[in-house]
Amino acid sequence: MTDKRIVLSTAGSEDEARKIARHLVEHRLAACVNIIPRIESVYRWQGKVESSGEWLLLIKTTAERFPPSVTRCGNFTPTNCRSASRLASTTAARSIWNGFIVR
Q: What residues contact residue 23 under an 8 Å CB cut-off, 6+ apart?
């Protein structure tokens, strides 16, 4: 098994996405971050189905650097929903997403 991780994250604006990407790479928490512009996310928020435009970040990191990259990404986000639930690694995605869906 590899220690490499792909992390999927979203940002609410292009500026936020660039700040997160640059911070992760500058602090060696990611080898590379791809920013995919203008996606639409559909989600449940406070009992209603909502949607919003976001920027997708594809973060390439390692198992060791995954936890601090999650913490650092959360520091940039204005909503605790995005910072708490938006991150997943290829090995942890199922448990994170299942926990989010059940809420």
A: 29, 72, 76
